[in-house]
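Q: Hi! New to this. If I give you a protein sequence and the SMILES for flavin mononucleotide, can you show me the bound structure?
A: Yes, paste them in.
Q: Okay, here:
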Amino acid sequence: MAENEWQDVKSLILYFSLSGNTESAATQIQDVTGGKMQKIKPVNPYPEDFDQYFKIAKHETELQLMPPVATAIDDINQYDVVFIGYPTWWGEPPRIIDSLFDKFSFADKKIVAFSTSSSTPFEATKPHMQQLIDDEHALMIAGFRCDGDIDHLKAEIAGIHLAY
Ligand SMILES: Cc1cc2nc3c(=O)[nH]c(=O)nc-3n(C[C@H](O)[C@H](O)[C@H](O)COP(=O)(O)O)c2cc1C
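A: Thanks. Here is the predicted structure of the protein with flavin mononucleotide bound:
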């Protein structure tokens, strides 16, 4: 869908980010789509120090914990498309993404998943996202990894079709 057509679509850009990469990707998506950005914040904030949050991330992942989400979303039904972005942790979305799906209903929503990572492709995280989305009876209409390259992102967004 062309960039100017996105201006007629109501989109929400939900993203989780600790070191800022996914936040930058979300900002680029906002620039292209005009969507509303909303950060997924945990009830218990992660420490700023990398080694400390790395340990917590590892613990959450190993025990498959569900860190509670503090963010509130005002009437998700007003959005035509929901972008959901996250860093890749050990080849998977962080556990807080499971909590997000637990807290909110995305039933019947059109979802675009986007990941960031050092190198792991989006496809590694796709099965987990597909499962979460299928369980909600929502639809994943696209998914991609953001690498900071705006032309790459614009091409991904241009390739999204809303009419399914
Ligand atoms: C706990 C942890 C696990 C990670 N695991 C992977 C991984 O499996 N593959 C990869 O390419 N990058 C991995 N990374 C790098 C992050 O995915 C990457 O830096 C991401 O863009 C960070 O997003 P953020 O700045 O929005 O927090 C990991 C980083 C952390 C902190």
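A: The chain has a mean pLDDT of 96. Let me know if you'd like me to explain how to read the tokens.
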